[in-house]
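Design review, sub-item: ligand-bound model
Attendees: FS, YL, KQ
YL presented the inputs for the 2-deoxy-2-amino glucitol-6-phosphate complex:
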Amino acid sequence: MCGIVGYAGRRQASPLLMEGLKRLEYRGYDSAGVAVLCDGKIARRRASGKLANLEALIQKEPLKGLVALGHTRWATHGKPSEENAHPHADCGGELVVIHNGIIENYLELKEALSAGRHVFQSETDTEIVAHLIEEKLKGLAGAGRSPTPDLNEPLLFEAVRQALGQVRGAYALAVLWAKAPGVIVSAKTASPLIIGLGEGENFLASDVPAFLAHTRKAVFLEDGEMAVLKAGGCTYFNLSGKRIEKKPVQIQWDRTMAEKSGYRHFMLKEIHEQPAACEDTMRGRFFPLKDGVLKRECGLETGFLKEIRQIRLLGCGTAYHAGLVAKYWLEALARLPVHCETASEFRYRETTVGPGELVIAVSQSGETADTLAAVKLAKEKGAKALAVCNTVGSAIARAADFNLFTHCGPEFGVASTKAFIGQLTALAVFCLHCGAARGALGEPEARRLVDQLLCLPGDIRSALKLEPQIKELARRFYKKEHFLFIGRHVNYAIALEGALKLKEISYIHAEGYAAGELKHGPIALIDDSMPVVAIGTRSRVHEKMLSSLEEVKARGAELICLGTEGDARPRGADSLIVLPQTPELLSPIVNIVPLQLLAYHIADLRGCDVDQPRNLAKSVTVE
Ligand code: AGP
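KQ shared the predicted structure:
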């Protein structure tokens, strides 16, 4: 999630932009840049690393001007570097763009623009937008609408609007053109963009904290809307160019609340960002099925995927649980032998990993020491490594042969939530393409799976609507000292993950177990002091799960059960959490949501430091 700030007003823009970007630092970033328009020219300053590097550059080479754009970049396409930092410019350096989101069809647009002799300076998807607008301006000028001062604003607006007509994907973007002084044209689809309305000055930003010190009067753009921002005011349009009216709102949050978008904790904000994390991670990654995204983004050719003789999924904690789910998917969809183990165990075993194997390392941070060591070991023994990371340029991403990044944006809560959803989504995309490449998944089945994947964000939203019921459950159970989570088949890993969420933020002892294992020991634990959370959603092992519920009920446990809409209430369920009819194989991506919310609200009621639990770090970079 990049940070965007724009300003048009009567004060020097550069200091205001830097202040705004600092207010967005919490979003995480790896490089930053600003562009200021002054005396008909646009000056840019960009730097990788922290904002202090950009500040030092601006101190050395100051920027003067009253209209400007600023950006902090969280890399999705192209490594963190000055060249890849925004703002990006057109060939002539007369037009700059800043952008938050993912342009799905940037490669095909880039090829067409390159054929039109556009020269690109970066690896980013954003840069193609600057050149596309440049192309549209030429076309409009050629159509007799020569740029003259009074015409330049509508010319720029029309060029941006036409360019966006060719763009597919998510964007919050802003554009500055040297020949349209004082004007910022912006547009929003699927990524947040907010206008801050001041007195004789106006702001735009990806989040409210960037301008909250200057104004509390804001306009939240909706998908498919554009804004033309000038010192004296802002006008709004839809993408077909029609003028629209937008009603400003008064922001009530203080700055800390604003950074969490009004949520009490980053973890809760990130739980609610999961529909977007799922959408953004699968965006533009389905077709073509063969030699598609895996070739384009990872360099994994169909031929290579056909030759793999075994896959080994490695990770730690939540990332390991994501691998466990993918193990069932790969067996079912790609008909491949699959191992899944914790990286900390794998790296010290006399492992048989070797040539012809693909190791898939799952890691949010991309810096986990055990996972990094496991990747290096696997490669030393001749295997190839694919990293599923959330952090471009991280050690594991660099160590791997191939990368399939999740697009969740930075995750601040130590407890992994949206990153888990992103990992599962990326792994599902991999399984789809691997199964298709190996002929194990025919075209009709693959298309059906794509349709099911496209429904996931909506199912996650439905699960999030259960929060009031889950908050009530938390009130009843937050004083318990032990929990047991049980699941079967593809939801066994969700039992483990639900238990991990609870124990790591509430400090309640919680165990996840394969329900079929209860009678082999753990059932001795069950009595009326031990609540049991059972994942009883619709599945091929549903009858078996119902028997497990009977077992625990007979021993006096209080039973909290996840069920599927339309199914009969499981006998013995004291509390039933009803989830949408998500297809069984994909149900883990939805089933984890109520368990995350249960853990969060129990921990909050226990007064725990939910975002920074004791003894834990966000990234375990030591053994
Ligand atoms: C899970 O909530 C924890 N934050 C922890 O288990 C985490 O998943 C694990 O440390 C792996 O981290 P990574 O994904 O950054 O490699």
